[in-house]
Automatic annotation (TrEMBL):
The lineage of its organism: Eukaryota, Metazoa, Chordata, Craniata, Vertebrata. It holds the Pfam family Ser_hydrolase. One of its GO terms (molecular function) is hydrolase activity. It comes from the Eukaryota. This is RB binding protein 9, serine hydrolase. Coiled coil: none annotated. It comes from Latimeria chalumnae. The gene is RBBP9.
Amino acid sequence: HCSCGPRKLHEFFADLLGYNMSPLKAVIVPGNGGGNVEYCNWYGWAKKQLNKVPNFQCLLKNMPDPITARESIWLPFMESELKCDEETVIIGHSSGAAAAMRYAETHKVYAIVLVSAYTSDLGDANERESGYFSRPWQWENIKSNCCCIVQFGSTDDPFLPWKEQQEAADGLGAELHKFTDKGHFQNTEFSELIDVVQKMLTTT
């Protein structure tokens, strides 16, 4: 069955819907910005660590439309190129977390792991143009389409008020890992993330 800490009711239904015993791959959906994502933040490091896990693979690709990160471009790319499906753990950071949530509203995935998630455009024109924040979040759809939802957030994030991060956690009933010193999670390593994914691979 699904393994993501204490089992929730929607996980039992996920079992009935025929979810795999454990996921087969992870996909890292990065935050917006330019440059090669392999060398950005912890993305390349995490990919390397997760690719060491037997019978498991981690995908990380440069996204199209990397600056504005439009939903209309990113979600089709996640479906057709990254093949995010019910055997996939989507790891989404910042804009990638917004993309992961919107994707899970309409697609079954094994899990979403959100890093620096938020729920509004924060009054920013670029965020507004991305399209993710044009309508209410369908929390129940996301929960029913995921076997497991984990969220990492930090109270000292310079870009995101804690209120936004907590709102996402509350809406999703996420397993929340709350920090006070991680900022926007832009370190080059992220061992807590690896631990969470490895826990999903160890069913009880």
